[in-house]
UniProtKB/TrEMBL annotation:
<protein>
    <submittedName>
        <fullName>Gfo/Idh/MocA family oxidoreductase</fullName>
    </submittedName>
</protein>
<dbReference type="InterPro" id="IPR052515">
    <property type="entry name" value="Gfo/Idh/MocA_Oxidoreductase"/>
</dbReference>
<dbReference type="Pfam" id="PF02894">
    <property type="entry name" value="GFO_IDH_MocA_C"/>
</dbReference>
<dbReference type="InterPro" id="IPR004104">
    <property type="entry name" value="Gfo/Idh/MocA-like_OxRdtase_C"/>
</dbReference>
<feature type="domain" description="Gfo/Idh/MocA-like oxidoreductase C-terminal">
    <location>
        <begin position="7"/>
        <end position="181"/>
    </location>
</feature>
């Protein structure tokens, strides 16, 4: 168990819980897919793990473009983490990507056909690791940037957007009300 490996894990001061630690990449992806978030409501709990921070949470989000979304995270799956998934449902299409490393296209259906649809459905996304292929590409980009062969694919600003959203989640749970973004902790 991750949280049993060191006393600092699961603490507010050094680690955080399910959202700050394990779900931050999903937060990145949601904002990349859907755009900026306007408002959040968040519910959280420490239901079974012996940690300070949350082991389970759920957020309802309203995006600036008018879309709405939900993210649910728990560290209580039995016997171990078996999947993550992202589903986008719209009036002209539905996509669900799941699997152990969010590497399996479970649904890819649109009202209008695009030539890329066939390519996406026929591609091989099989992986044995929960980390999938993401870290390999990231490290390659870091090396290429250090060797002046490429520009960074991500930067601190995008990470800061995800941190801001997670902090707004926590503030919503703490105050028991929805929180508008951009979020300023001093308010």
């Amino acid at each position: 168990n991750y949280y049993d490996m060191a006393k600092w894990r699961g603490t507010w001061e050094f680690d955080g819980g399910a959202f700050m630690n394990q779900a931050s990449h999903y937060i990145d992806i949601i904002q990349w897919l859907m755009g900026p978030v306007e408002r959040v409501s968040f519910f959280t709990g420490t239901l079974a793990r012996h940690i300070e921070a949350e082991d389970t949470g759920a957020s309802i989000m309203k995006f600036r473009n008018g879309a709405m979304g939900v993210i649910q995270v728990t560290m209580l799956t039995y016997p171990k983490n078996w999947e993550g998934s992202i589903t986008v449902i719209g009036e002209k299409g539905t996509v669900k990507i799941g699997g152990i490393a969010v590497n399996k296209i479970e649904k890819w259906e649109f009202s209008d056909y695009d030539d890329d649809d066939k390519l996406i459905l026929e591609s091989d996304y099989e992986t044995k690791s929960v980390y999938g292929f993401g870290h390999i590409g990231y490290y390659k980009n870091v090396i290429d940037v250090l060797e002046s062969k490429a520009e960074p694919e991500t930067d601190g600003r995008s990470g800061r957007k995800s941190l801001e959203l997670i902090l707004a989640f926590y503030e919503s749970a703490k105050k028991g009300k929805s929180i508008a973004l951009p979020f300023d902790e001093s308010n």
